[in-house]
Specification:
The complex is a heterodimer of chains A (372) and B (95). With 372 residues, chain A is an alpha/beta fold. Chain A is built from 16 helices and 12 strands. Classes of the chains: A alpha/beta (372), B alpha+beta (95).
Chain lengths: 372, 95
């Protein structure tokens, strides 16, 4: 009889979920605990050396993280992605993780698995995360360490992966398709699919660094695959290609040619989620680093950022004809990596077309056999 | 009926959001931990609020009998049923 007083299920099964989505409520947020990383990956958009003291000093304190999480929960947050850099490098990772769990947040953790130790396994077994997503850069020492540029990292990676897999914690894998590892991508996919029941995803599109480091940006560009290679890779992955085909009508929309809107943001950034950088900057999404689009949580509050700053950013418009004609009206914009955030990282402007993204989007569209 | 119950504070977190009272498992062994949550309706929440680790179950039932309409027997059955359910799911513990 008392069963009627209590119901159990996933959040989307409750009326609460619709209430959360009705208005612009916080549902989830990403928390970058650090920009430091034990690896030095050629393609990385954020990593700084593990022993970078200046980066360490800039990191949000445990108390500030708790304060931000308290506000996020008060605004309705349910999910938090703990990311970095490599979040396990924080000496207070366990304290942060437990504090976030005890606020009732479902936690996901992104890691490269290299720093995983027994103490992390004990923590994850006691307070299970929603999932742990591991980045896989190669499945041979040669390829893995060509990407990470750290000798001995492959052995530690395999050890960390095995520790996590044997613990029973839910593990997911992802890979970046890079010039340095593309020859091994089928083996990487096989390794990932063999070791998890969950999905495996790879990302063939690289964006540039948040700090604008010119030398590192050139390295990232040198790791980019050509549009033709990206399309071939996607086509060879049956699961991925079928998904693209299935969504074809949404991804390619000739009606976009008639759009007369000059708003910059047509994505969901800031509608139900946000990102906090390791040094305390609030953004609508992790890549959005334009000075007019960041809010310093060290001097302001999350509530103010969410309630007043986000609508201000989302109302930004463009008067640049090239953008309005070429991107805003583009029927394949949904197949494109272009967005104001990536435009800024590539060109220093929020509304500049990016040739390499454009070519990839059109190559994808062509493969999907749609006329436009 | 002399037993005293309290929320399993180390294992669950209770939150009120948009007028709904929910309980979120955070520890291993409580719920399936794959985004499973529990929701208590208004009556369930009233029972929950009284499971404070101090009151005996008999006192909880007596107070609810005063606050809610219905026969004492009916309320007793409802409360003990819900407490059993919460215990089974490890959402509350016996002090």
């Amino acid at each position: 009889m008392s069963d009627s007083y209590i119901k159990s299920g996933k959040l989307p099964e409750f009326p609460l979920w619709n209430k959360m989505r009705e208005n612009r409520n916080v549902i989830s947020f990403d928390l970058e605990l650090t920009a430091r990383c034990n690896n030095n990956c050629r393609h990385c958009y954020i990593n700084l050396p593990a022993n970078d003291n200046e980066a360490g000093r800039k990191e949000l304190t445990f108390d500030k993280i708790k304060e931000i999480a308290d506000e996020a929960v008060a605004l309705g947050a349910f999910w938090c992605l703990i990311t970095g850099g490599e979040p396990l490098l924080r000496n207070d990772f366990e304290d942060i993780y437990i504090a976030l769990k005890k606020k009732g947040l479902f936690l996901s953790v992104f890691t490269n698995a290299v720093p995983v130790k027994e103490k992390h396994i004990e923590l994850f077994k006691k307070y299970p995360p929603r999932d742990i997503e591991i980045s896989v850069y190669g499945v041979t020492k040669e390829t893995y360490e060509k990407v990470t540029r750290i000798s001995g990292s492959f052995e530690k990676f395999i050890r960390g992966v095995n520790l996590l897999l044997n613990s029973g914690v839910k593990v997911r894998f992802k890979a970046m398709a890079l010039r340095s590892n593309v020859h091994e991508l089928p083996e990487i996919a096989e390794f990932c699919r063999k070791n998890t029941k969950d999905y495996f995803r790879f990302d063939p599109q690289l964006h540039l660094r948040f700090d604008g480091n010119l030398k590192r940006n050139e390295e990232i560009k040198s790791e980019r695959l050509s549009p033709e290679e990206i399309v071939l890779l996607e086509k060879s992955d049956t699961e991925r290609f079928q998904s693209l085909e299935k969504d074809c009508d949404r991804l390619i929309n000739p009606q976009f040619c008639n759009i007369n809107c000059n708003h910059l943001f047509h994505c969901g950034a800031g509608n139900g989620s946000f990102n906090v950088s390791y040094d305390g900057y609030f953004r609508l999404c992790s890549s959005l680093w334009h000075p007019d689009c960041i809010y310093d949580l060290k001097t302001g509050s999350l509530t103010e950022a969410w309630k007043y700053f986000v609508p201000k950013v989302r109302s930004m418009t463009s008067g640049r004809r090239e953008f309005l004609e070429k991107c805003r009206k583009c029927p394949v914009i949904n197949l494109c990596m272009w967005c104001p955030a990536h435009s800024y990282l590539e060109t220093g402007k929020l509304d500049e077309p990016v040739d390499v993204f454009c070519k990839t989007a059109h190559a994808r569209a062509e493969t999907l056999n749609k006329a436009f | 009926m002399n037993a005293v119950y309290a929320p399993a504070e180390d294992d669950v977190v209770a939150r009120e959001l948009h007028g709904e009272f929910i309980i979120i498992p955070i520890s291993s062994g409580v719920g399936d931990l794959e985004d499973e949550i529990f929701s208590l309706n208004e009556t369930g929440k009233a029972v929950w609020d009284k499971l404070d680790g101090k009151k005996k179950l008999e006192e909880v039932i007596s107070e609810l009998t005063v606050e809610f309409e219905g026969s004492a027997e009916e309320i007793r059955n409802d409360v003990t049923g819900l407490v059993e359910e919460l215990l089974k799911r490890k959402i509350i513990v016996e002090n």
